[in-house]
Input
Amino acid sequence: MLDHTLPRAGVPPWDMLPWPAYLHLVIFVHRVNGLTAGLYLFERDPAIHDRLRASLHPNCLWERPADCPEHLRLFLLQHGESRRVAQAISCQQEIAADGAFSLGMFADFAPTIRAHGAWWYRRLFWESGVLGQVLYLEAEAAGVRSTGIGCYFDDLFHDLLGLSGDEFQDLYHFTVGAPVEDRRLTTLPPYAHLRR
Ligand SMILES: Cc1cc2nc3c(=O)[nH]c(=O)nc-3n(C[C@H](O)[C@H](O)[C@H](O)COP(=O)(O)O)c2cc1C
Output
């Protein structure tokens, strides 16, 4: 799943965004086989590494998980369960805590806006939307389900990581896990209102 979030030239949907990855992932790993529960960082562009190391909490572990493929820049920042804080950050929504993992997408923010102009604010959200679409598809392919989470407390997320100022900015959250059918809702086939 992480591999498919990496931009590659000529590979959809990433060929739609003609810029390097400005968004990176902080992953709350709850229940993933082969990975200890904890807080992880996934750098979608290695060029961000030194600036992130200088900005994140000094007590972050920066450990590479065993057997992690070399090209996946996944780092364990903090051991231990992060379900409660994941739920709190996502406006107390249980779906952020009760699945396999949830994540926050944060942007290399102020430098990008300063370099390109304020209109890039929207483009950073486009990147988060494409990431969300990829994750929706990857979750289905892995036999689980997922939900984009647009209700989150960015300040709480920044505090957890030790981020201050606007160099980096939380933009969107996402959660992946086994589905629980909500029987209060009626599900119709797509375009059920159209005559065939
Ligand atoms: C930008 C965005 C933000 C969302 N935020 C949340 C959220 O905070 N909590 C939640 O349960 N679902 C959230 N969703 C998921 C929607 O509730 C819904 O599951 C999804 O849009 C599919 O529903 P539909 O098939 O009825 O369109 C979000 C979806 C999008 C696109």
Remarks:
- The mean pLDDT is 96.
- The chain has five helices and six strands.
- The CA atoms of residues 82 and 126 lie 28 Å apart.
- The pocket of flavin mononucleotide is lined by residues 93, 95, 147-151 (CB under 6 Å).
